[in-house]
Amino acid sequence: MVAAYRHVLVVCKRLQTFHVIRVTTILNVYGIFHHSVLAISPFLPRVVTANYNSKTSAMISIFKRQIKLFFVCLFFITLKSSFGQSAEEILTRYFAASSNGEISKWSEIKTLYATSIGYYSQKSFETKDNTFDPSNLGYAKIYKRWPDEQKEELFNDSLFKYRDGSFYFLKNRRVIFLGYMDPIETAPDEKSTFNFYPIRIKNYMDKSKSIAYNGKKLIPGKSTPSYEIVIKEQGLDHILLFNTESYLLEAIYFQEPDIYWLISDYKLFDGYLIPTYVASMKNGVVFSWTRYKTFEFNIEFDENKFNPRYEGKNQTKALSTSMFLNLNETTLDEFIKANFLGKRVFIDVWATWCGPCKWEFRNYDSAYYSVMEREAIELVYLSIDKNSDRKKWEADVANLGLKGFHVMANKGLIKSIQKLVFGDDQINIPRYILFNEHGQIVSKDFVRPSNPLFKEELNRVLNKR
Description:
Elements lengths: L1 H39 L5 H38 L3 H13 L11 E10 L1 H6 L9 E9 L3 E7 L7 E8 L2 E6 L5 E3 L10 H11 L2 E8 L8 E8 L2 E7 L6 E6 L4 E11 L2 E11 L2 E13 L10 H7 L7 E3 L7 H8 L4 E7 L4 H7 L4 H9 L2 E7 L6 H11 L3 E5 L2 H10 L10 E5 L5 E3 L10 H8 L4
Parallel strand pairs: 14-17, 15-16, 16-17
Antiparallel strand pairs: 1-2, 1-13, 2-3, 3-4, 4-5, 5-6, 7-8, 8-9, 9-10, 10-11, 11-12, 12-13, 15-18, 18-19
Helix pairs in contact: 1-2
């Protein structure tokens, strides 16, 4: 039917202008001639008028056929706007809208760091009731390295302080690492890695046996229909629904489980248009959703970021909580070697009575911790409070909820810091000291975390760029 329609449409386009002119001309000429004949008919012989009436009937019959053909063409021309777009045209417009016509630019992304908040309700899935339980909210950090390495770190708080576990998707295997138990490997067919939708759809098209446009279809819960495209692979149909105005992807429908992926809230990140909300819906009820908060592209990752065995052996609990260290060392050099050998360390020197120190703590948000974690930097909060203020220090640590290691300096360590960092001068805080993985001080007076150039300076002194 679609092929027949297109053939008629082509013919009508060619004949449309011709028939408009022809019909108009026939009407004008016939009108003038007919009125002239009527004016002189009383003076004409009866045989002439009879012959004229016969010719007039023939002309009217021809004219009716012309009018019918004209309106048939007009109908098909009008119908094109709602039915005549091909699947290829719709997909081309989608790529133009989502990628500014440059689908290849997505391949320029080699690594990705993203944060998200998610929700899942087994009850909603099973009972079809649209319920919301805030206790089922989860938070995640995503590290992706193309083509097929990904790590998802799972947290139970929005500040990413308390981590529950990690999921690794590594080439042909999947690794689950919950808490501090040994990693568990599961079947490789459960592997699922992050891909942007233009890349997904382009891959579908490259493997397709056929691509078809099925007209406009209504997504459950929506009041306006969407364009439906079906891309068929061997034994698999990809059913895609696109917005009829923006041509952006609105949903993917999976027939066998009868589930829709709802895709919306597109935002620009470094020139890339990305949906920030993806939900799963069954029987008209959304039972899970993910809302992406941040995206950063082409960031350098530590090689061990995608090594679950390394994480199992080397990760400390302080990565997700606050930990107190027992101090036995009396020099800064001994302290680093005894507790953080082979690791980068950022020492935050502070005290409970230091107002500016606590003001800086207000800037220690998820973005700050993300930067430090990506750079594999251990956070150490070194208090120079007197031993008589220990209870106050412990209470402050508990209330502040600072992620990292906490230690109260003894007299020997304070003297060592004063000599090594301040040149035997008076100690001024807050003070920030940065060590590299070789136990060497790379900065005795690093910029404050509240400084807008903090991240840039960190990259510079660690020779990251």
